[in-house]
User: Fold EAL domain-containing protein from Methylobacterium hispanicum.
Amino acid sequence: MDIGFISEFTENDRVFRFTDGETLRNPIAVGGADPLRQSFCHYVAAGLMPGLLQDAREDPVARGLSATDALPVGAHLSVPLRYADGTAYGTLCCFSFTPDRTLTGRDLNVLRLCADVVSAVLQKERSASLDLEARRARIADILASRAIDVVYQPVYRTSDGRLMAFEALSRFRAAPERAPDLWFAEAAEVGLLEELEFLAAALALRGLERIDPSIKLTLNLSPSSVLSPAFARMFEGAPLRRVVVELTEHAEVPCYAALRAALAPLRARGLRLAIDDVGAGHATFRHVLDLAPELIKLDRSLIAGIDGDSARRALADALTIYGRRIGSEVVAEGVETWGEYAVLKEIGVTRVQGYLLGRPQPLDAACGLPLTLVGLGGGG
Assistant:
């Protein structure tokens, strides 16, 4: 056959999605379209024309179509393409410019086998597209209904047990029930991460009015959100000296210079920067080196069992010394035992947070916490 192509049926047109044949003689252009009801494809798919024509001019329907003489179409083979539920996608067709009396049902069966392969690929793409639409709709529903509850986890100073900050964390009122990081990961996959992070941050900022003025609030944002034009707008009117942006790794940093430029005006007005998950991977070390944060947050994987693990202790000690030399506070996340706390205080970690000291809690409960945790400054 001279020309082969795959077409997709839209409401009124047949759109060409793939074509193959001798370039100089191929009248089919990918992306081109023509009226569906004037095509061989429509009549074959509707069962009004046979899938195999040795000579198109011998079929009464084909003979009446303008394409038969205009292309021209001599011999023609066509097989409908359908999704698994039977919905029509279009057709897989091939034709020659002249009749061909050698074509048989065997040739049509070969094309049917090819169509089965094409249909399987189309079904996979369709399933992925439907899944993406469903996940995007799920995140869009959260944004529309503002279905996020903010909880606040306390951060204490090791030297005297003083309550220094709350980290604002999100809890989602939506199905399926799952960890917040999975919601943010899904938002990133469907292109709505910035919107979801800004909603969570805006809801958290409301709590500043009720939190003691001496206490700071830490907000989690990804590099892509910091680079967004909406980043600066979100903080208009906010008391920046009470705000810490904790940089997460939901997105890769394409350009540290651009990130520094986005942060600079707000940092000049008092905003502080924290780098999360330090010690968990090389990317966070790059953040520390290139962004000069005021706070370095040691990852929970480094803290867990540190009182019984010399390797963890050595790395935490080295990071704490480094932080001290560059003028950064060092915060240990995920502290769950007094043994862990004692080691962290001994090596010079300046701030701690974790279930041992306080779980994430609603704003009312957070506002009721004492400003100093008795016994913490003395080592518990």
About this structure: The chain has a mean pLDDT of 93. The chain has two domains: 3-129, 146-367.
